[in-house]
Design goal:
Blueprint lengths: L7 E2 H7 L6 H9 L4 E2 L2 E2 L6 E2 L4 E6 L2 E7 L9 H4 L3 E3 L16 H4 L6 H19 L1
Antiparallel strand pairs: 1-4, 2-3, 2-5, 5-6, 6-7
Helix pairs in contact: 1-2
């Protein structure tokens, strides 16, 4: 049975593993109700985590699923930070919206037409709506 000495702070580990730029941002991520530890919502930034725990949290436009491999001793370079965790995030589909025709500007031919801009706006609204659900 593990004791309390092998646990370390969640917000500090997120910062040392370089998932966020500051401890304040890490604490805000946890206290904002967006962090899950082993499927349970994390209540406070000082929550203890240990190797083997699975973290689920949003990062930019995707959901990250991370397994903690080791505690961090310091906030070192990115290559050192990558040894602290195992990324088990499921891969994203290559082209999630196959039904959207390519737009002229994306092909490099010309500026988008009014019709193309409307399609872009509709796709952005759909993506935002899907992300909020």
């Amino acid at each position: 049975m593990a004791d309390a000495t092998d646990r370390f702070r969640l917000d500090k580990w997120l910062w040392q593993a370089r998932f966020v730029k500051s401890r304040n941002l890490a604490a805000a991520l946890v206290t904002g109700g967006q962090m899950r530890v082993n499927g349970q919502r994390a209540a406070k930034a000082a929550q203890g985590v240990r190797p083997g725990d699975v973290l689920t949290f949003p990062q930019s436009d995707r959901i990250r699923v991370i397994r903690i491999l080791a505690p961090a001793l310091r906030r070192g370079p990115a290559s050192e930070a990558q040894t602290l965790y195992d990324d088990i995030t499921p891969p994203e589909p290559e082209n999630p919206r196959n039904d959207v025709p390519p737009i002229a500007r994306m092909e490099g031919n010309s500026r988008p037409t009014k019709r193309d801009r409307r399609k872009l706006d509709l796709d952005r609204r759909r993506a935002t709506k899907d992300a909020l659900e």
